[in-house]
Each structure stands twice: as structure tokens, then as C-alpha cells.
From TrEMBL:
EC number annotated for this UniProt entry: 2.1.1.181
Keywords linked to the UniProt accession: Cytoplasm, Methyltransferase, rRNA processing, S-adenosyl-L-methionine, Transferase
InterPro entries tied to this protein: METTL16/RlmF, rRNA_lsu_MeTfrase_F, SAM-dependent_MTases_sf
Signal peptide segment: none
Source domain of life: Bacteria
Chief location: cytoplasm
A cellular component term, taken from the record's GO annotations: cytoplasm
Family: Belongs to the methyltransferase superfamily. METTL16/RlmF family.
PANTHER family tied to this protein: RNA N6-ADENOSINE-METHYLTRANSFERASE METTL16 (PTHR13393:SF0), SAM-DEPENDENT METHYLTRANSFERASE (PTHR13393)
Reaction(s) the record says it catalyses: adenosine(1618) in 23S rRNA + S-adenosyl-L-methionine = N(6)-methyladenosine(1618) in 23S rRNA + S-adenosyl-L-homocysteine + H(+)
Protein name per UniProt: Ribosomal RNA large subunit methyltransferase F
Subcellular location: Cytoplasm
Function comment: Specifically methylates the adenine in position 1618 of 23S rRNA.
Length: 304
């Protein structure tokens, strides 16, 4: 077992160099792309245009504007209460995945030959949308929640992307890759943003803490970016989810080149690496990511 390769990129505090969201939001341009955003634009204490990030409708409308302006996604919406992800951080995962797939060529691989499986694509379908628009990749998204699956399919169909993105139902609460990857299929990569809480109570505690940081009391245990139970927590949290994915990956040695997952907790990373040591791997990497004060990391592994 080789020692994991840490791609620390000088412990960066900024988004990826190819990320289109490194600068301040240009609200004038965003409003032109999505006129409904105008009603949510306010002046922050510094006198600059912004939105109230405690307002879930404002956050969702900002996402609509970003997807329209930067990625040409004209129709995007999610059911009430479902996860409304921060676009810049989601784009970062895509760009670092592109670096991982470049095979040392120094240029990202583009076009249909690159095929990616997005585990738990969610009602928002963000990773396939950005990955296809940025690099022309094709995607399969898996989802266990029926309403989230229907929402993701609606977004794909509304934007005429059915030839590039397909959504599959995961019927088993126990499996992650099993039942999704078909016999003989090939993927360049699997990506995953796992539920990181271990219980409903832990999820609610995290929600209350984030509301406190935003300076507002929680309402109905919801957050400005939302999130259903299956999106925010599972039994055993991200550690159980990712270790299960690691175990299942051994059954798909010939199907997937790189397996990857986001890891939110440092302790999860070390425990997952211990689990990886049990496998016959050719490479393991972990890539730090950060957006402001939020720090995360990508764990990636491939077999011999």
C-alpha cells in the first residue's frame, strides 16, 4: 500500500484557478441573467450589493442566476426544503476532479469520452450540470429519494441534457455502487458528497449552530440552504457511508478508474485511509479544498 499523495496546493485559501466564482458577485450582470433576483438584492454594511443569505428564497434565486449566467442553465428549481448547495464550492470539486483525470497531460480532459458517476446527485443535480457545461463530460447521477430523483430528471429534461446526463434510482438503502453500475459499464470517475451527520439529532445541532453563526434563530429546523434527512445524515454519518463505498469499490475494479468522495472531517479521512490500506490500490490522494472558512477535502483512490 503506497503512502497517500497529498495535493496540498500550498494550503490554498481560495477557489480553484479555473473556478468562475473566485471574484465578487456582479449582481448587475446576474440580475440581467435572472431578473427575479433583483427583488432580493440589498446593500451590505459596506454599501456593496449582496443578498440576505439567511433568506432561503434569496439563496435559491442567486443559484438560479449563477447557473444561468455562468453555465447556460435556463431552467432550474428544487422542491421546498431540499438542499440548495453553494455553487462555487460545488464547482471546485469538478475542477479538482478534472485535474485528477488529466493523466499528467497538464490539460483537463474534455468531451463525451469522460464519463462520471455522481453518487447521491440530489434534487439540485448540480455536479452533472457544472461538469457537463464546463468540460463536456457525460454523467450518471444516482439518487435514493424519489422526489429528489424526479426533480433532477426534470432539470435535465427542461434543459435538453438527456443525452449527456441520466439519473438512476438506487433502490437499496444498504448499497451505494451496487445496483447503479451496470455490468460492463466504464466510468472515468465516481464522485460523491456524502451525508456527513450520523443522526437526526446531530444534524439538528449542526443546523442550530449554523443559524447562530448567521445571527438568526432556526425556523422548523431548516437552513437557508435546506436539506432533507437523506441529504444531511445517515446512520454512522460520512464515515460509515464512505467506508461502505470503499468496500463496494473493490467489486468494480474494472469499471471505474478513480473513486472519489468529499470528506468533511479530519478524523474521517484518517479512518478511511486505514480502510483503503486493506485493498490492492495503485494510488491514493487527498486534496484540500476551502471556501472562506469552510474547509473540506477530496479523498481519491484507484486500483492496480
Amino acid at each position: 500500500m503506497i503512502k497517500p499523495d497529498r495535493l496540498d496546493l500550498n494550503e490554498k485559501q481560495q477557489l480553484h484557478s479555473r473556478n468562475k466564482h473566485r471574484g465578487r458577485y456582479d449582481f448587475q450582470t446576474l440580475v440581467r441573467s435572472c431578473p427575479e433576483l433583483e427583488e432580493f438584492v440589498i446593500l451590505n454594511p459596506h454599501g456593496s450589493p449582496s443578498i440576505d443569505f439567511k433568506n432561503s428564497d434569496a439563496v435559491k434565486t442567486l443559484n438560479k442566476a449563477l447557473l444561468s449566467n455562468f453555465y447556460g442553465i435556463g431552467l432550474w428549481d428544487i422542491p421546498e426544503g431540499y438542499l440548495c448547495p453553494p455553487i462555487p464550492g460545488r464547482a471546485d470539486y469538478i475542477h479538482y476532479l478534472a485535474d485528477l483525470l488529466d493523466d499528467g497531460e497538464g490539460e483537463p480532459r474534455r468531451g463525451k469520452p469522460v464519463r462520471v458517476l455522481d453518487v447521491g446527485t440530489g434534487a439540485n443535480c448540480i455536479y452533472p450540470l457544472i461538469g457537463h457545461k464546463e468540460y463536456g463530460w457525460t454523467f450518471v447521477g444516482s439518487e435514493i429519494d424519489h422526489l429528489a430523483l424526479r426533480s433532477a430528471k426534470n432539470i435535465v429534461e427542461a434543459n435538453h441534457l438527456t443525452k449527456a446526463i441520466s439519473i438512476r434510482k438506487q433502490s437499496s438503502v444498504e448499497n451505494i455502487l451496487e445496483g447503479i453500475i451496470h455490468h460492463g459499464e466504464k466510468f472515468d470517475a465516481v464522485m460523491c458528497n456524502p451525508p456527513f451527520h450520523a443522526s437526526l439529532q446531530e444534524s439538528m445541532t449542526g443546523t442550530e449552530r449554523k443559524w447562530k453563526n448567521l445571527g438568526k434563530r432556526p425556523e422548523h429546523n431548516d437552513l437557508n440552504f435546506g436539506g432533507k434527512d437523506s441529504e444531511l445524515w445517515c446512520e454512522g454519518g460520512e464515515l460509515r457511508f464512505v467506508t461502505q463505498m470503499i468496500k463496494e469499490s473493490a467489486s468494480f475494479v474494472d469499471s471505474v478508474k478513480w473513486f472519489t468522495s468529499l470528506i468533511s472531517k479530519k478524523e474521517t479521512l484518517s479512518l478511511c485511509i486505514s480502510e483503503l490500506k486493506k485493498l490492492n490500490l495503485s494510488d491514493v490522494k487527498f486534496i484540500p479544498m476551502s471556501q472562506g472558512q469552510k474547509v473540506s477535502r477530496i479523498l481519491a483512490w484507484k486500483f492496480r
